[in-house]
């Protein structure tokens, strides 16, 4: 089961904060937290606060994309993607540090979820607007921003406030649901990208590039939800094909499609 963890200021995920699934018990007291002023907290967690700001920008632009107004909505769409790309670039800097030209660094880079979504943001910056593409980055921004807000409140002496406790409980109860929705959105974007080719808003190579993103998500060591979503879809389709009411032609097509997609899945370790 994947855990959303609040980012640490250390590299390679050392000394990370507790996950949201375990954080609800910690919210009842200030034990384990050194009370800081807001300015002191910002100074000690400058990079984390910067990512918090870029996540709020992602949410702001995503909301304005859906609201009617005088400005072109696509402008907000691309700004949301730029903010998401900035967040993931900062997270990569935090996790990996400086860039080194080595095979080991490249392997570490590809294994990072932040690298996957930096790649994702760049892909959709080069195509026409796909509304569903905002769903994963918006939900991730919401989850991480909420978790960091809880940490900020706890470290500034507000751990027992009603807002902090409610936000903490919301994170603990909704994280898995949000990650499941994100995984399904990642998969269902593929047919949307194919449709963009026929209306001239995406190049022929975009679905193949996005397939590379999906393989990275499928192989992710920290987030198994994409694998689980594929598995659940396969089980549902096979259940339909085995049903006596399913026509033989449809059952045959379903089984062949499942076989082809299963063969395209990358190995997991």
TrEMBL record:
It holds the Pfam family TMEM33_Pom33. It is a multi-pass membrane protein. Its main location: membrane. One of its GO terms (biological process) is membrane organization. Keywords: Membrane, Transmembrane, Transmembrane helix. Residues 1-30 are annotated as: Disordered. One of its GO terms (cellular component) is membrane. Residues 1-14 have a biased composition (Basic and acidic residues). Residues 19-30 have a biased composition (Low complexity). It comes from the Eukaryota. It is found in: Membrane. The chain crosses the membrane at residues 117-141, 187-211. Belongs to the PER33/POM33 family. PANTHER family: TRANSMEMBRANE PROTEIN 33 (PTHR12703:SF4). This is G protein-coupled receptor.
